[in-house]
Structure formats: C-alpha cells, structure tokens
Amino acid sequence: MPGHKRQPSIELLELIGVVRENGSEQTSFPPVHTPLSYDYVLVAKTMEKQERAAFKKQTEYIEELKKKNMRITKIIDDDLVFYGIQAPKEVFEKYRYLLKVSDACNWSSDQNVPLSTRIRIVHFILNHTPIHSGEGLRDLMKMKVFETRFCLHEKKKQKELKENWARWSACLQGQPITAVRNYFGEKVALYYLWLGWYTFLLIPPALIGVIVFLYGLAFFNTSPLIKEVCEADTIMCPLCDKRCKVWQLSETCTYAKVSLLFDNNGTVLFAMFMAVWATLFLEFWKRHRASYVCEWKVSDWCEEEEELILEIVNDVNCEPKKYKHSYLRSTLVLICVTVMILVIIGLTHALVVFRVIAAVLLAEGSWEFLSTHSNSGAMMLGAVLHYLIITVMTRINRIVAMKLCEIEKTRSFAATEKSFTVKMFTFQFFTYFSSLFYVAFFLGRINGHPGGYVRIAGKWRLEECHPSGCLTDLFIQMAIIMVLKQTISNVFEFTGPWFCRWLKRRRTQKLQRKCAHCYLKHESEDKQGAEMCDNCKLRDWLSNYRLNDVDSFSLFNEFLEMGVWIDVLEAIGVLAVIANGLVIGVSSDFIPRLVYRYLYGPCANGTATDIDCMAGYINNSLSIARMDDQNIHNEFSVHQMTTPSGLNVSYCSYKDYRSNEDYTFTPQFWLILAVRFAFVILFEHVVVICKFIAAWFVPSAPMQVKNDRLFDKLNRLKEELKVI
To answer: Any idea where the Anoctamin transmembrane domain is (predicted)?
Structure first.
C-alpha cells in the first residue's frame, strides 16, 4: 500500500463542485446554506408524444414530493427539464428531535443539523418516495424517466477549500478537516484525517529504513559474501532448457551487492519494528480520531439507527424492515465467495504458466540478450501481466461483491456497505497478493533439481529464483507493479474525470453570465432571503449538470487502497506480522546464514580467530550435478555444458542442500527448515506480545476526550430533567 501523501484528485474536485449520481446510495455531499436555495435538482429529458407513459410517471413522482411539502421549481432549457427541490424546515426539526431522544449519537440539544447532513436527509427522502406503481427514484432513473440528480454546491465554501486544501501549494499546510467535514460529511473528512496522520507517522519508519539501507551500504564492498561471489570461478547449471548454457557465479556480482542492501541483519530488526509500528500507528490513530469525533459529537453514532430515524422523518406511518437471516442465502454467498477466491488463485496459477512459457520462448528467441536473461525477462513480463490482472479484477470484484450483497438482502444500507467492504477487501487481498505469495514462498522451492526438474505438462520446466536469491524476484515484481500503479493509474485518475467533463461541456450550450441583480444578491450571501431569477438558477444548474457522476462508492477505491476501516486495519496488522515473519524466515537467507555461522562455518567450533565466520558460505549453499549421472546426462546437452570460452565441463553447481550422490536433501537442509519454522513462530509470538503491550499502554482515546464526553452527557441529562 502506498505511503505517500495524496492530494485531492480531480474526482474529489468534482465533489467540491457538485455531486451527481445514477441510482446509487450517497454519502454526505456539499450543502446549500441559504434558506431559499435548493437542496437537490432532478433532471429529465423533454418527453415526446410517444413517451406519455414516462411523462406521467415523472409528473406523478413530482406530485408525491409536493405531498411531502417539498418546494418544487420547474425550469425548461431546450431538451432538458430541471426540477429544483427544497425540503421544508419541519423535516430537519423532526430529524434533530429524533436524534436527541434516540441512542444514535450524543449531540447536544442545542446543536443544529450540519449542512452536509441536510443533503443526506433529502437524498434519503427522494430515494424512498415511490409512485403509485411502487417504483422509486432509482427505478425511474433506470427507465430514463429522470436522467440524473445532483445537489448544488456553495461557491464561496468551494473557493475556500480550493485555496486552503485542494491545491499543490497546500501540501505542507495542515488540512482544514472541520471545513472538509462541514462540506463533505464525516466519512470523507475522516478519510483525509487518516491520510494526513498516516503520512505523518511514516516519517519514523522512513528514517529507520534509511539507516538499515545505509547499514547494508556500509558492507557493500567489504562483505565476505559479496567477495566470495564476485571472485568465484564456480560453474553453475543452466537455468532453462535447450539454449541456456552453464554460467559463472561471478556474473551475479552486481545483483549480489544489490541484494545485500535489503537482505541483511538489519532487515530482521526493521521487520520487527514495522510490526510494532503498525500497532502503535493504529492506537495513536484511534486517539487522534477520537478527538475529532468527540468534537463533532458523533462518537456514539449508529448508522442503522439513523436510517430508522430517516424512515420516520420520511413517513411517520412507516414499517421498519425486520431483521432476517436465510441459511440458504448465506450458504449461496459463501459458495460464491469461495468460488471467486479459487478463480483468483487460478489466475495466479495461469500467471505462473505464462512466466514458464515466456521464459522458454525468450530463451529460444533470436535476441541474444533476452536469451541470456530469459528468466528475468519472463519475471518482468509476468509483473506487467499481474498489474493488468489487478486492474481488470478490481472492476470484476466490485461487480461480484455488489451482486452478492443483493443476494444477501441486507436490512439497511449501512449493513450493505459493511458487507460489501468485507467482500471487496477479501477479493482484492487475494488479487493483489496471491502472485506475490507464490514468488515469496514457493518460487524456486518446488522446481526440483538437475535430473529431476518439475515440469508443467511434462514439457515446460518450472522457473527458478534469480541467481542472486528469491528476494530479488520479489523486489522486481513489487517494484514494477508499484511503478505501473503509481504512474498509469494516477494518469487515468487525473485525466479521466477531466475528459468526461470536457465532453459534457461540448454537449451543452455556453453558460450566460449571471445578471447584475443576482450577482449582487450572491455577493451579499442572500442575507434577506432573496432568490435568484430563473435564468441565473438555470445557469448554476447547468454548470452543475456538466460535472461527472458520483455515487457513494466513488471514493471507495480510495478507502480500500489505504485500508481506512478500523477492522480492516486490525486485520492488516495481524497479516503484517505473519507476512514479515515468513519473508524473513522463509524468503530471505537470514536463517541459512545464521545456521552456517554457528554450526557449519569456520567459527562453529569457537577456535577460529583470524577468519571471517561467514567465509565459505556460498560454496556451502551449493550442490553439484555431475554429467556421469544418466539423469543429468539426459537433462543437459553437450552444447549446454559448454562455457562461453568453449570449455566442456563435466559438472555444474546449483543452489540447494542436496547430496551429490543421490540428490536427496542433506541433514543441513532439514536443520535449516526446522530453524526457519522455529524463527517464524518465535518472531510472531514476540511481535504479537509487543503489539498487545503497545495496545494496552496507549489508551484508545485521550483522557480529555473521555472527560468531555462525560460532562456532555451529564449536561444533557440535567437539561432533560429540567423539562419534567
């Protein structure tokens, strides 16, 4: 997951301007401040004679809104019909009172309804106002009775946010979180609050990471391991069939130096630090979040109870949706989720097959450079394909998660959102990391040995790790995916909304200037409650109509990419401990080096004083395959066993702990394997204990916040007692 600080994207700038959406639930969006301005605007196409049925439904829906005392203003512009909608004051008074008497939140009795909440209330009423046939606004929009709907922005607040927040020069300034909350609502504000906090707390691991890097750099040229690789005359076995020849270990000198930069003793300490840091970050984030949540007085907020309040505000005689559970539906959803995960894992297998075949084709090609580096080329192509799979599967995962939520038939939108979040996170986790898990924990460990290589369909030989180690393959794959994701994805993220907005501007007529009379009223902020003329209303509505469609899930990918939800962050923290332990214990050479140093190296008996304890490690980690063995003779041709200088060799080395006679694993292999698993278990237990201590030591909310909530509740209870 990226650790850089993200500036508000063009999609967010669209939100600052206006919000439009096509039939989906919405979160809090820009409100209107003045008493005679409009909360929402519906847009429809002008109806022809043959579309009388649609026109009748349109008229019927508008009449239903009028029955709820909605103020409706109709303005026709060529082929578009705009309906300005303003909710009566009584709606918001009911909402405020019901919040006061419910357990949904701890708002004080004298607190007004936030402007962003006003939009959410009207949005709910529009979505839950059916016509006589039972069709709601979403259904009517699908039938093209209405084209779209949107809520209006407030230009002065929009200008303030752009100046203080949504611009590159504001990168080093503090975010106006409260202003963001007033304009967008709590969810969007908390996301950017989290993003700023996350960026700030990345400074310590960044500094320690630099120190670990410099530690590896200090031994860049003096490490005995690098010296042994760079000066070795060891002949290594061919890395692929047919055209691949034997090669010298010294050819990997540069890669060995680079590998040491991120695979050294400091890496273990850094991994442990990051696991503990994840816990501290989460605990400090809870404290930071609690301060703002308490200030906004939504610390006890319950979305499901708010939906119940909105249902009553919309219809006093409403019947609540009952809680239901269907074992059949749950079983069906579980089966579908399992099948989806298996499909994603299947794509990982397909990616492995692609890399194996690509390595063969590159090795047999006419380009000498690619033939020599066929495995590395195949790995890079596989990383690019993995990025494309991530891009495509993200869209498919979203569709499948939505369909599964429809099958579940959850009681409320809040429950639907939670269910969708869990499914989407699960699918995306396997999409992102299945291939990386294969590279980290399986690549080069299941491919067999000379004379007994594992082959796909008995033909294509499984790929091996990079000659300098498996971590190099993992580094290459992650680097390519991250670079592509940060470049291509961001290019589309910025240019896509801009291009869509440009197309809509081309399709509509040029806006007229606001008349002087309305301009002066706008500058005085409508203090007298005056209203703009129809021409100026139309001008504003058309400018909003041109903006891009936005729904409640428009920023969902942003949330998912940064792991915003507390429960998700808790899960990521646990997975981070497991992954770090496995990478250090299984993927890196830390454990084999440790075992060699104390049991097989020159210092094993404690007598060596003038020699480095890691001397001879490289040769110790290699096994030998001899051509006098019939299986080896059948595996490699005479052409493959010829060095670049023309010398025919009778044996070659390969990286593994196997017997030189029968190619079975040596006792050293089993000892290393046992130590690997012991290290993983010990690492995870130590880090988990540290996580629990850190979580206990750092309270989830500052004492001042808890005291503020305590006194706020006390004052509210006293006020209620005065009413009796």
So the answer is: 180-562
